[in-house]
Amino acid sequence: MILFCEECGTRHNIDDARIEEDFFQFPCHVCHEALVVTGGRTPGGKTAQAVLARSAATVGSPAPSKPLGIMVVDDSKLIRSVLREIIESDGLKRVVGEAENGRKALDLLADLKPDVITLDINMPVMDGLTTLKHIMIQHPVPTVMISALTQEGATETFESLKYGAIDFLPKPSRTRGGDLQTQKMEILRKIELAAAVQMESIRYLRRPSQDKAGRRGMASQCRCLVVMGGAEGGYGALLNVIPRLDPQLPAAYVAVMHQAPQHVDGFARYLDQCSQLVVQRASDGTVIQSGACYLAAAGEPFTIVREAEQIRIKMSDAIPSRPDGAIDRLMGDVARLMGEYAAGVILTGAGDDGVAGLGALIEGGGTVFVQDPRSCLFKETPMKAVDQYGVANRVSDKHMAGAINAFLAAHAN
């Protein structure tokens, strides 16, 4: 059996005869984490994920019987009052504490032990982003940013996700369009989803120090092509994956996002600053190069083709431009083009876009990875993929890059 360490991504070749019926534990020979395989042997010699022993106990944990405890952090007394009213209207959630700045929030955190924090960005004494970094280092708690600055596509939004926030929302307001009841339901929904995310998946992302200028424009054709698909929650998942991919491997990456094109523009620029890979928007005629990642919106009419011995991005009115099924279509095209040198990754999302695409990759001899639903903000798509194909490579977004790097390093030889 082939197993990948969830902590560092190292590949382990384990003799099936060593694995007992329900449990097998062994140390990773690189990072020395205790790894455990549960649930018996994997049939057919498929690859599997060796999960950290410390997280095995969380599988199947019962749902909490008490209301979710929320700490509200905002310098506006009015906003704190509005959020309290919204949260406590649910009956299954209660506000356990309030703070008007980040410093006070950190002082209260250890005693209050909230299940979720809502956090503003602009505050006196200590701002929200600084507070968020301290929270994730000292007492990691699922945090939803609720701020006038956290609009979709804004730099502040990406910064908060980089520092470990689970999700983001603008502050409730009658001037944003839509009714307050809709905004209220969205706040309650995001808090509930955040509470269900396994905090082991949170890790502060530091920007790489190396200079990428020398690699831009260097024509190095890829040997392997990896397609990633993400819907709601995809910003945070991709921020956990793409910056940690090894640019020296002979592989290129295409990520399809169910987001508006203008938001993907801003995200590509931000992600490029955080990544070792060269990250850019997908555009017509671009030659796919190793060490690069290309971002596309699901509604854009594009695919991957081979022309004149080069792999290129092709955009055309003849290509379907409907957002529904965009990940499926691209994965199917890449499966036919690359065969066993194709890989697919399904990240957090709702719906089923990408599930059929994984099937095409498997049928073509490619390899597939699915984000562990426990680390997902939206679990529906990953769970459908796992249920339909019994995907062995189930990895949290925090450890996905390590598993992909290990696979590509082995496959390149």
Brief write-up:
With 413 residues, this protein is an alpha/beta fold. The chain is 32% helix and 23% strand. Strands 13-14-12-11-17-18-19 form a seven-stranded parallel β-sheet, sandwiched between helices.
Could you describe the 3D structure shown?
32% of the residues lie in helices and 23% in strands. With 413 residues, it is α/β, with parallel strands linked by helices. The chain folds into three domains: 47 residues, no CATH class; 130 residues, 3-Layer(aba) Sandwich (Rossmann fold), CATH 3.40.50; 200 residues, Rossmann fold (3-Layer(aba) Sandwich). Helix 3 packs parallel to helix 4 and helix 9 packs parallel to helix 10. The radius of gyration is 22 Å and the shape is elongated. About 6% of the residues have low confidence.
List strands and helices in order, with pairings.
Elements: E1 2-5, E2 11-13, E3 23-27, E4 34-38, E5 47-52, H1 53-56, E6 68-73, H2 77-88, E7 93-99, H3 102-112, E8 116-119, H4 128-138, E9 143-146, H5 155-162, E10 167-169, H6 180-195, E11 224-230, H7 234-241, E12 251-257, H8 261-274, E13 278-281, E14 292-297, E15 302-307, E16 310-315, H9 326-338, E17 342-346, H10 355-363, E18 367-371, H11 380-389, E19 394-395, H12 397-411
Parallel strand pairs: 1-5, 6-7, 6-8, 8-9, 9-10, 11-12, 11-17, 12-14, 13-14, 17-18, 18-19
Antiparallel strand pairs: 1-2, 3-4, 4-5, 15-16
